[in-house]
Design brief:
183 residues; alpha+beta
Length: 183
């Protein structure tokens, strides 16, 4: 938003008498821009060497499309010391207990429901049932939706773009020495 447009917008919001409506107006101005539908996803990729066994460690994170909210989750993919990890996480309490219900939807396929393990900090849910198979099932473009039905029956959602995922999957597979896929 240009400086002049911002001033005009702030002035327009300030002139609204009703508190709730005025706040909504200011919230709209402060909301970060949503990336265009065709925009490439932002894969944050880190690689390093494990101090335990000198294996390659790969860490990949993607924040969800749209603005980050209190109910957003980020997608984390990792290879650490030969172990493939798929999880979603947030900066505060996500779930309590041992497992949590997670709904995933790949592209336009029907949604599926499964139980993921709640992480040690209760800020993450980890896919422990065949993470390699899950990653192999993802297309190299399109979208992935994940919902965690977490603490206090809140729904924590993330919509992720899979563009460029072929390279991510290749890096994880090489670092973790995945077996050849079944034929």
């Amino acid at each position: 938003m240009a400086q002049d447009d911002l001033r005009i917008g702030l002035g327009r919001c300030a002139a609204i008498a009703a508190d709730a409506d005025r706040l909504k107006c200011f919230d709209q101005i402060a909301r970060p821009a949503v990336p265009a539908t065709g925009a490439a996803p932002v894969w944050e990729i880190q690689t390093e060497i494990s101090p335990v066994d000198d294996s390659r460690v790969v860490r990949v994170v993607q924040k969800p499309l749209g603005p980050w909210t209190d109910l957003s989750i980020a997608l984390h993919l990792r290879c650490v010391e030969g172990r493939t990890i798929v999880q979603v996480a947030r900066d505060s309490l996500l779930a309590v207990g041992r497992t949590v219900k997670v709904i995933t939807r790949i592209g336009t396929q029907p949604a599926t429901e499964s139980q993921w393990t709640v992480g040690n900090t209760s800020q993450e849910a980890v896919l422990t049932d065949n993470p390699i198979g899950f990653l192999r099932s993802l297309p190299t473009s399109g979208r992935l939706f994940i919902r965690v039905e977490g603490v206090r029956d809140q729904r924590f959602d993330g919509l992720f773009r899979l563009d460029g995922f072929a390279e991510i999957r290749r890096n994880l597979g090489e670092a973790c020495h995945w077996p050849a896929p079944p034929r």
